[in-house]
Amino acid sequence: MAEVSLNNIIKRYGEVIAVRGINLNVADKEFVVLVGPSGCGKTTTLRMIAGLEEISEGEISIGGEVVNDVPPKDRDIAMVFQNYALYPHMTVAANMSFGLKLRRFPKAEIKARVERAAQILDITDLLERRPKQLSGGQRQRVAMGRAIVRNPKVFLFDEPLSNLDAKLRVQMRTEIKRVHQKVKTTTIYVTHDQIEAMTLADRVVVMNDGRIEQVGTPHELYHSPRTRFVAGFIGSPAMNFLPCKVERNGAGLVLNLAENLSFPMPADLSARYGKAVGKPMIFGLRPEHITEPRGGAPGEKSEFTANLDVVEPMGMETMVFFRIEGTEVCGRVEPTSAGGPGQPMRLRANLNHMHLIDPATNLAL
Amino acid sequence: MTTIAAVAPAAKPLKRRRSLARDRRWALIFSYFFLILFAIFFLAPPYYMVVTSLKTNREMVEITSNPWLIMQGFTLEHYKNLIENTDFLIFFKNTIIVTLCVVAITMVISVLAAFSLSRMRFFGSTAIATGVFLTYLIPDSLLFIPLFQVVKSFGLLNNYWGMVLVYPTLTVPFCTWIMIGYFTSIPKELDEAALIDGAGYMQILLRIFIPVAFPGIIAAMIFAFTVSWAAFIYPMAFLYRSDQLVLTVGTVTSLVRADVFQWGSLMAGALLAAAPPLVIYAFLMDYYIAGLTSGATKG
Prior knowledge:
heterodimer, A: Rossmann fold, CATH 2.40.50.140, six-stranded mixed beta sheet, six-stranded antiparallel beta sheet, elongated, B: mainly alpha, MetI-like fold, 2 strands, disordered N terminus, disordered C terminus
């Protein structure tokens, strides 16, 4: 059993507060990703779990035991660092076995564990090499191997893929997921890359300014963001935000985006967004929900014409950028349907996926 | 319809530029010129010493002889005189003992000091690190009078073990400073990884830092060796019995009697005394350079 729980964790550096009261429970064998922009406190939180930073307030427990005053070596954790942190003067095998030797494991067991980890990570051929003879991806594998051999209660990953090139990052992402499926160990993973977070995590913790914005499965965060920050941070390209007004029109609601641009709201959303009537609101819609009219009857009420500013062909789809009342909006359309920049294009907003955010609280309704 | 092509200015004819290869050739010519100049400048004194130590006394004092050449045959009489008629071998032995002890003491103190100052952040550690370096800036000519009292109070006056006590005041600050620079260049994650792996501070120092910072340690050792081997003022002030003297002072006091300078033997003694540092430099030069330039190239 190795749940990790954080109870009201606060970290202060003098006057600066880096982490402002975090509560989080990570279940046994769960893969949790802490994601957020630089300086949001995610790495500090991870380092507090590792015991590399002291906790200003609150309580961290690993496997039911409070570890606030337990030194890192006695927390039974293993950590993979962004810059690998391999011991440069040791071979791969020595790097992996260093922790076991310090803990005075029998030689035969050390050998067996190193070989097993090397097999899992496919680095058996590299065991006698030194770190500088390895590529970035191989080094990161060795760093993971060093963590695996210890068979710890918790794996901590601190932006392990940030130093790799884009292609290798995708490969290693899969590798990490594969390793977690083989070696079922509680894992806490820090990244600023939301795609990494979405692809790896059982649950994602979105952090901002030292606080948790939302905890949920990748699906929940993507489809039901609780705050404007989460809505904007998760998803690439980011969600479009436009100021709007909601008005009543008979039994239904109407969404006013501009003087000449208003859409009737789908009937099943009317009840949910009824309380927004008359207040200034922020309308949020992901680019994939602004497309060319597909299948819908011509002249459907959520169709509109936009003058395209920029067109970005991506191969399987094309990004189109245009402005509504001065705010840039992005849509994703079929490559064949997009015109050139400066040309008008007929588009359709799929309001079934819309979000309304109260600008006063930045919370989604 | 685009008009960009129409309004683009006509391309100006390219100016003839000096080729990179020609620039490089001139740079090399300048480099070689100055390197050769400096080599001559620095190698002339040792050459002069070799020539003088192999000349007969007669040739040396002849006003018409060329001081840079041996015209009247080689002789080893100066070396023989040095070894048979002076306590040169005792000086040599004393110097080796003093130097080895000083190097050992210096390295233990400065490696431990540098590790704690660079890695175990504590109140005032930065101020102490600066303070350590500032002590290096105090010239030994200012220190030898108070140190005389210290050495005397330990009963080590006129005893080469007194040098083992005082030389580290010269070597420890600079070696600590070199090691602080080197340890600081080791990524912090390395000790954090070791901490998580289960190492204590002493294990981190012995099993990670010392092997990784080995070039820096060699550089510091060479520095301590050189300072200790070549120190002059302290032994001059604190030692005066022939069986306790070290090479630098011993050679001079034995071979300069009032206004009689035994130049041949002086040069022979200086050459033999310079041999060990020379050999050590030759073998460890790569480490020394890597150690002193660590901050420049290591990320």
